[in-house]
Amino acid sequence: MVRNPLALAVFAAVSSMQAIAAEPITPIRPAQEINLAQAELGKKLYFDPRLSRSGFISCNSCHNLSMGGTDNLKTSIGHNWQKGPINAPTVLNSSLNVAQFWDGRAADLKEQAGGPIANPGEMAFTHTLAVSLLESMPGYVNEFKLVYGEDGIDIDKVTDAIAEFEKTLVTPNSPFDQWLLGDKDALTVDELAGYKLFKDSGCTACHNGSAAGGNTFQKMGIVEPYKSTSPAEGRSAVTGKDADRFNFKVPTLRNVEMTYPYFHDGEAETLTEAVDIMGRLQLGKKFSDQENAQIVAFLKTLTGDQPNFALPILPPSTDKTPQPHPFD
Amino acid sequence: MVRNPLALAVFAAVSSMQAIAAEPITPIRPAQEINLAQAELGKKLYFDPRLSRSGFISCNSCHNLSMGGTDNLKTSIGHNWQKGPINAPTVLNSSLNVAQFWDGRAADLKEQAGGPIANPGEMAFTHTLAVSLLESMPGYVNEFKLVYGEDGIDIDKVTDAIAEFEKTLVTPNSPFDQWLLGDKDALTVDELAGYKLFKDSGCTACHNGSAAGGNTFQKMGIVEPYKSTSPAEGRSAVTGKDADRFNFKVPTLRNVEMTYPYFHDGEAETLTEAVDIMGRLQLGKKFSDQENAQIVAFLKTLTGDQPNFALPILPPSTDKTPQPHPFD
Question: Model ipTM?
Fold first, then answer.
């Protein structure tokens, strides 16, 4: 028995670290090693709808930082009110993903950031037009120069800055993380029972790591096939391998209370529905109503500190700025 | 001659106040007498796209506080990408307006706030649905109760809170206001020459007061008729009087560098163009290129401190929250 107070404290700390290490989900760390100047510039770009053909759609339109980094729609609304093919994944904690997009077709945030700008169904712009637009505004020209230490704007810098901003969008300090870090009162009995069920049922086989997902691709519909009208085929669109059909990146469960609706097609409107479907299709397990409610209670403890920053003020256009084309 | 230092100071202060009083444009005052709790709630509502049928359009979509409180489009994009009939006026300093909308059909901000929510061409929702939606979220239910000191949400409280937030959106401290307040170095020679031209040419007949506009209705096209394809007829739509045809609320010139494009139809893309047209049609005066440039230089000194606040985080929907209908 350890009686020395210091030894006791060390023992407790080591036990606590072992407890963390033993859990399949680990705490989210606050943002580190951020180039703040790049991130501040990236924040402006993230909120700037002039990077779309219409002048109306920004990154924040579909990855709304007031709403869990999503649009809370089954599939997104793109240029000219086009219906998107897939549910917008949250940008929160996306720096922790193994790759970006549901099918992982972008290696990292920087590569991802260029996609929607040039996607005809989303922002419907081009990289060339985006750069010309930014070059027409002294506010941006000067900030790019200050941030990158050289003249000139190109799409590489644009996506680099957006990615740097997105790296700041981590959400530490959720009740579950507080529990992981040793505050045993941070979770209720039901929430803790939900976590135990979540682990014991095998959910953590895919939803693990600090993002509780995002780090592997898995088949949607392992035990039973998933029926969907969505045309998305997942990872096979990238690898060309038939074996990868319906393999999607496992979504993070961080802030999942805020990122409804669920799945790549957004067809599960509630967490209750999502947990039920996941249990049956992925694990061959039918959760009772009580079990489902406990797992949902646990999932809601994954909501962390949301991004906290001042709404950016964008540099005004000038007489040389190309006009938006919302209706033609 | 006054030799006593105190008397001198008093004399200087009185002179300075007389100078301010003598100018047709007066300084914007910072927000005062704000119910902060209401304003904070109103900020959430202002940013909440769930108050639209699609779940995609919020007040901030068309009155974007990153962009001078406008969308910088000729006419706005509404539900299902409908083309709006008129240019979105800035929400900045709108508390100083004599009435709201270009035709003044709403007496105040509170009455205005209900308009776009229920307009089929804009947010395409109904007040009843908006209230039901808010009532489904404990985050909102509790905040309304705390703010208003009683149970229940109704459209009256919703628009009241939005209006209170909008009252905070004043933009004091522009270079021109610094000049008005006595800093004679706040304007360049050209800017000051532009202001003198602006006054001497008669622009201040309509663009006066602390908002440099917004306080009267005036005919668009006094000396020469204004040609527009816009169906908007202005004040006559409210009064029913033929004499009020093409009478519009004089827009504020505060932050006008940020609120492009100009006029009720948004047809003037640049300040240069707007100044030229205003001179000819309203005053029968053709400004030289130099005069135009000086007036534009003056107008750009009307950009004040932009709203500075943290992006609000919205309460998540619940299983009871009505689903958005973006595509049906």
Answer: 0.93
